[in-house]
Amino acid sequence: MQGWFITGGADPDQARTVRRVLFAMVAGGLAHTLVCWIAAQLDFFRGGSDVFTRLFLVIWGGHIGFILFTLLGFNRLCRDPSLTLPVIWWSTLVLLVSAYYTDQVRLCVMLLFFAILQTGVFRSRRRDLAWVGAFGVLAYLVIIALVAHWHPEAVDVTAELIQWAAFLMMTLAVVSLAGEIGMIRNKLAQRNRDLGEIVDRIQRLAVRDELTGLYNRRYAMERLTKIREMAGRGAFGVVVAYADLDHFKQINDTYGHGFGDEVLRLFARRAGELLSGRDFCARFGGEEFLIVLVKTDLEQARNVLEQLRRNLAAERFDDAPALRVTVSQGLADYTAGETLEDWLARADDALYRAKSQGRNRTVVAHRGRLDGTGDALPVPE
């Protein structure tokens, strides 16, 4: 349970609900009370001041109950936390009860019903408002019948029925208008959802490769630059690796570009399975990828990349049973003071050595060396 006045700092939706309920109960309640009080002063409220006082003590008790229920956050337990329909039904019921005791100016009280319906125009379905409208119209007719039966001296049935007919027509108009507004609202909501999907797609394309779902080159370089700056302050160790699918052009030529795309997506999935949440893989173009392993040393990174290489080599394809997809990889850990260009150049040089030594292997670049030396892992038989 939350405390009093749960406002928008932590939950803007709850703050809006609190404001709506406060307005409906206080402003609406005061308007209703004032109209009935004027009727009582003009001697149009059956039962006089005693009935008026007891009735509105009960009504305001309900209003305050709604307010406290919302302020204490219990509305969050409801299917509709906004309480739009419960507030509408409660307001309609108390309006009808007071209308039973109001003679000659009953329609003046019932006109407040349209203000009640208006509160749900933008937040309720047309069907729900139609049910409330139908209930209000029929209940109003029942009230006329009850008053005519129990207090015939206090009612002009003909005049009441004329007023009821006018009320019926106005209710139909309001509900119809609410339906039109509801359709417009639904169309706007759908357009907003479509626009949101477009914006999400644009944002995704700005940082992701469309084919594999991996980061694209531009975003990967931006992120790697920030990682290097933190690593340069001694925050953690970081390793980069270039990975290149072996003989990928032959795969495309032999099996088609569609199959080649599947191979690229397969590599992206296998890399994602082995990387932690802080690591990432990016497609640099064609069949070349960049893998960044954060808070990792060379030995750990090499183990991860070797596992990736073995997993990829173990893949079998129904459409190409003889195909074995392999990858060559070169990795380098960051050395303090090293520029981003030199760091990546060492990883690229290690990748070149992996290719020149027969592919399907992982080569580790020595620190501060760009002379082509490095350690290559032997390829298992």
UniProtKB/TrEMBL annotation:
Its cofactor is Mg(2+). Residues 291-318 form a coiled coil. It is an enzyme of class 2 (transferase). GO terms for molecular function: diguanylate cyclase activity. It comes from the Bacteria. Its EC number is 2.7.7.65. Keywords: Coiled coil, Membrane, Transmembrane, Transmembrane helix. The chain crosses the membrane at residues 21-40, 52-74, 81-98, 104-122, 129-150, 162-183. It catalyses: 2 GTP = 3',3'-c-di-GMP + 2 diphosphate. Residues 236-367 form the GGDEF domain. PANTHER family: DIGUANYLATE CYCLASE DGCM-RELATED (PTHR45138:SF9), REGULATORY COMPONENTS OF SENSORY TRANSDUCTION SYSTEM (PTHR45138). NCBIfam families: GGDEF. This is diguanylate cyclase. The lineage of its organism: Bacteria, Pseudomonadati, Pseudomonadota, Gammaproteobacteria, Oceanospirillales.
